[in-house]
């Protein structure tokens, strides 16, 4: 045995805080929608989407977030350093535990303070394969 005890019975004395996830998007938000569906469908128990951030005001993913009553923020990237500081401040304000990259990359400082997960793999970003 590994020494880790596991019980299928919920403990009344222990309350596990949900994993607070922030999702960074830049477009339609199809990966965001998959996460929303999984959380709402209880396929990801203990996960809570706490913030959606986009660098494009017209990103459909922001509307998806608002439709599901999720906090959503648009941060323009005209001055990247300033935008990245705003992003870091929002992530800290919303107490994100994990950042999911679903179309928008995270600043290296965010990578120091938060675990990162990539939710997509765009075909254009993969190397070409030969048959």
Automatic annotation (TrEMBL):
Keywords: Purine biosynthesis, Transferase. It is an enzyme of class 2 (transferase). This is phosphoribosylglycinamide formyltransferase 1. It comes from the Bacteria. Its EC number is 2.1.2.2. Pathway: Purine metabolism; IMP biosynthesis via de novo pathway; N(2)-formyl-N(1)-(5-phospho-D-ribosyl)glycinamide from N(1)-(5-phospho-D-ribosyl)glycinamide (10-formyl THF route): step 1/1. Residues 20-103 form the Formyl transferase N-terminal domain. InterPro entries: Formyl_transf_N (IPR002376), Formyl_transf_N_sf (IPR036477). It comes from Dictyobacter halimunensis.
